[in-house]
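Hello forum,

I keep getting stuck at the same step: I have a sequence, I want structure tokens, and every attempt I make locally crashes halfway through. Rather than fight my setup again tonight, could one of you with a working pipeline run this one for me? It's a single chain of 304 residues.
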Amino acid sequence: MELRQLRYLVAVVEEGGFTRAAARLHLAQPGLSAQIRQLEKELGQPLLDRSGRSVTPTEVGRAVLPYARAALAAADAVRQTVDEHTGLLRGKVTLGLVSGATGHAFDVAAFLAEFHGAHPALEVALTEDTSERMQAALLAGEIDIALLGPTWEEPPPGLTHRTVIDVPLCAAVASGDPLLVPAGRTAVPLAELRDRPLICLPRGTGVRAALERGCARAGFRPRVAFEAASPQVLAQFAARGLGIAVLPLGEEGPGPGGGLCSLRIVEPGLRARIVLAWPATGPASPAARALLERLRDTLPASPR
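Reply #2:
Ran it on my machine without issues. Output:
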């Protein structure tokens, strides 16, 4: 019996079949099937029921699975202990990143290239999603660390965070929009956006949550005509006169032909924040701890 055979068995059960398990393990399916048959032959009992549409463990297979997982965890712990003593980091760490999270303030590609150079045996998986879903993934242990726009007013139990970006929200409008009268105007009360077509990030993002909270307190519901996950796309829509883009200050750009103007939203002032978030108990693995430490050293600290 070999550890790799136990790993294969666990993968087939978790994936519900040989095809998906082979893809996950980067193996040819016939080779995977042969290894499972060899394990069953050695143990003298079938471990998998192959008669249905999906592959499921037999009664013996169900009894074996906890011990297989424990053996794999023990082997990983041995490897991790050795790596810690030799200063080598292995394994995988998952970083969540909301689309457009850091704008020009943080070069994610350069950061990951530098981190990979320092820890070549460590795999970093980068995933993009809405802030709301990444918050849930952090709490569920599905990702290790995230850069997200908080949708909360008070941080939820179980998460620790550090604010890295905190800027005002602005209304980006095409030249000639009535909001720009009188000339030289630099701010707009939120109430003046009532009934105007707005262009904003989707629900589940920090910017959208801040907008909806502010409008609710002002006594109206925002009329969102267009949504997009990229602040740059929102700015392009606004420059074409499709509505007023609600964006973090500095993300609006000049628009096509330079025809985009920004007005800071006031009364009340709305803010967009990006935070570095991780489980309150701390990252689970040495790899995740190393990534968090490097992120905290690298990311700009918010002045607020």
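The CA atoms of residues 166 and 273 lie 4 Å apart. If your local run keeps crashing, start a new thread with the error log.
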